[in-house]
């Protein structure tokens, strides 16, 4: 089952923005647009996207200002931010990495399709599938989630798994979802 990722595209250049809007939509993303950092912050708070793709130089608030504002808000602090640079300055790349930007693209050095696949990598790279032993609080979890006692799928009987997605790598924080790998693969 393919999840529809939500992406927020922040760029003051309408032409560049609409190019990416079309590409991400065609790849099945749910797309929101913003024209600068302030607008981006508003939209991020309203829609809580899975990823934010922002330019750097913009009126009112630039990409770095946006990253800083996102980090200060609990609701948005864990949303991965990816930056695209028109200038390709090394100092921007360094700064981006220092403030925790997850990927950095230089316009013209990478095709829009490659941008999409790098952003998709971001999701798969941080997803882990674990199988749970019956130790610890598993029996309580089984009861509270109304699962079968042997931790098997009610539909197909296969062993269930826990999918983890890292939300903050430094603090070892993640979100988890119990899934049936066999039913999900259908
Ligand atoms: Zn199943």
Notes on the protein architecture:
The structure is a single chain. This protein is of the alpha/beta class. It has two domains: 6-124, Rossmann fold (3-Layer(aba) Sandwich), CATH 3.40.50.2300; 127-185, no CATH class. Helices cover 37% and strands 23% of the residues. It has seven helices and eight strands. The strands form two sheets. It has a five-stranded parallel β-sheet with strand order 2-1-3-4-5, with helices on both faces. It has a three-stranded antiparallel β-sheet with strand order 6-7-8. Strand 3 (51-55), helix 3 and strand 4 form a beta-alpha-beta unit. The radius of gyration is 19 Å and the shape is elongated. Residues 153, 155-156, 158, 180, 182-183 line the site of zinc ion. Zinc ion binds at residues 153, 155-156, 158, 180, 182-183.
Summarize the structure.
With 186 residues, the chain is an alpha/beta fold. It has helices spanning 14-26, 37-47, 63-72, 90-98, 112-124, 138-144, 181-185, and strands at residues 6-10, 30-34, 51-55, 81-85, 103-106, 127-130, 161-168, 173-179.
Q: What is the makeup of the main sheet?
A: 5 strands, parallel
Record field, number of beta strands? 8
The separation of the N and C termini measures: 7 Å
| Count of domain modules | 2
